[in-house]
Design brief:
The chain is mainly β. It has one helix and seven strands. Strand 6 and strand 7 form a beta hairpin. The radius of gyration is 18 Å and the shape is flat. The two termini are 30 Å apart.
Length: 96
């Protein structure tokens, strides 16, 4: 069960929620900007943000789900903790 798909909280079964289309954070000069999924350092200027976050929050208990959007620009960078994982193990069916 998920808030986004089922419109019901998997934690408390609540049915009232908040949806924030884009999570914001403070940038230079205290101005709001979209929170990036990944920040790419640059020599001059501010870091380049890749992706944004959407959040859905249960109004009853505060349970929160984060969903990353616009993440096609992400690239693996294990040195900096960015890993791409693909589970390509075939699922065995009930009949063998």
């Amino acid at each position: 069960m998920t808030l986004k798909r089922d419109l019901q909280c998997p934690n408390c079964d609540g049915v009232s929620m908040w949806r924030l289309e884009t999570m914001m954070e403070r940038a230079a000069g205290m101005q709001p900007q979209p929170m990036g999924v990944l920040l790419e350092p640059r020599v001059f200027g501010t870091a380049l943000a890749h992706g944004t976050f959407e959040t859905i929050i249960c109004a009853t208990c505060g349970y929160t789900e984060w969903y990353a959007r616009a993440i096609k620009g992400l690239k693996p960078d294990p040195v900096n903790g960015v890993h791409f994982i693909k589970n390509d193990v075939e699922k065995a069916g009930p009949y063998r």
